[in-house]
Amino acid sequence: MGSSIDLGSYTVALEEMVQFSRQWDPQEFHTDPGAAAAGQFGEIIASGVHTLAVFQRLAVLGAYHSWDVVAGRSIRDVQLTSPVRPGAELFAALTIDEITFGRPDRALVSATGRLRTAQALVLSVSFDSYVRRRPDSADSASGHI
Predict the structure, then answer these.
(1) Whole-prediction pTM value?
(2) How many domains does the chain have?
(3) CA distance 129 to 125
(4) What is the domain-level CATH number for residue 124?
């Protein structure tokens, strides 16, 4: 295990951050420029939920599109380590931690995702997903999903 997948990047615009937060996380430091300027970060920052959604989009486009995903099982240990500021370019990577072959038709993939700017890690998340096994992976020793 330990295979890492580069998921590409995404630039978050101020308008998108505010629009997302108005609907899903309407706290002033996400939606009101005046309140945000007077606050802890000095400007609007992205919602943590939005940051996780950006990672998910990049994971789908960069990896899951080639997997036969059945369903997610868990999201664990979400760490929001630095604020996401307007105009930030976010780079994502996914590391496969473990593949458990418990059924003949599917495997449980445990992975860790990371989202960062050029300067700092902004998100770390661990999760499990059920994935259909490829026909050539019927032998659990093959390590393929």
Answers:
(1) 0.88
(2) 1
(3) 13
(4) 3.10.129.10
